[in-house]
Amino acid sequence: MSETGVSSQISETRLEAIAKKILQTDDGFLSQWVCEPIGPKNRNFVTDGVYRVSGKHIVRGAVHAWTAILKIVLADPNRDDPAHYNYWRREVLAYESGLLKSLPASFRAPECYAIDEQDDGSVWLWLEDMPHESKRWEREDYAFAAAKLGEFHAAYLLGQPLPDFSWINRHWLRSWINECKRYRDAYQEPMVQHISVSCNGLVSVIDRFAMVETSIPEWLAALERLPRTFSHQDYYESNILLTPDGLHERSPTLIDWQFVSISGVGEDLGRFFGLSVSRGQIPSESCRDDLELFISSYITGLKGAGWYGDEALPRFGCLAAFALRAVWEVPKLLKKLEQDPKSPESRKLMRIAEMQMEAAEEVEALRRRLMLKKI
């Protein structure tokens, strides 16, 4: 929906009520307001737009400024099952349930001021506008975020009850892989022999990827036997809001709770790393060292919170979640290579695929070892 279309549908009565809630007053009146789009243009299938609505409220002659975030969630009949990784109503229910009001590891979620059901079936979430620092992350930021994620997960590994809502996905990665296969099947894979002439190593990647595909059922079964934890599943830079003193502030804010799940220890971390590399936040040239930073920091967070289990468990969860992203990345690589095998994007995707295949070898070794321990 366009900015103009959204503005024309916003009720000033609703805005005045939200302004009073933000300012913690029952007095005054709305003076003026504006609505502007924020965030990336390429959004989730079930998000129609995210907007910052700001205005002024007059209380006994004094002018008070306020801001709120409006997130428009689309009803989607193709994603209307809680078993779907992208169930369209999940984030609405997460706020509605009160689940996000108290989170471990000093994490915060924005306050939800109001939930408005629209005549077209969409839902408007009115959320707190969280102040944060916008900057390119450094290694220390990733180490901090990975350690906080470990601390968060440790709370559930140590006995905090897992959320029991029916709308929380219990097989998130399994559902995501099924959707990726549907996407891949929409394209006819190019002839590997033709592309490999100008792309060293491609045949090896494809051969190892074939092994990964045959291993998916066993890997998913092993992931689903890992110790369970409440997981965000979209934990990466844009959804982790750090204050300007982010390394010292102990309560980062997490936004975008659309993918929340009950998943295996380490799985959320593997997706975090995979997203950061795929989006170019972490250079693919240095990602091998960065992967070890993620894992060691995560384990530091687990131990700091009191979990001293087998470190091979979160390592397996992380590496498997990262390696299984090849189900999405390798078909994308083939498509890019067919278009231009020498492009920077093709080279980046090739490096990522090679690293995923390296991770896959360790995943299989860990799976066999852990299988003996009957995880």
TrEMBL record:
SUPFAM superfamilies: Protein kinase-like (PK-like)
InterPro entries: Aminoglycoside_PTrfase, Kinase-like_dom_sf
Highest taxon of source: Bacteria
Domain Aminoglycoside phosphotransferase per the UniProt entry, residue ranges: 100-273
One Pfam family here: APH
Segments forming a coiled coil: none
Protein name: Aminoglycoside phosphotransferase domain-containing protein
Biological source species: Paenibacillus albilobatus
Taxonomic lineage of the native organism: Bacteria, Bacillati, Bacillota, Bacilli, Bacillales
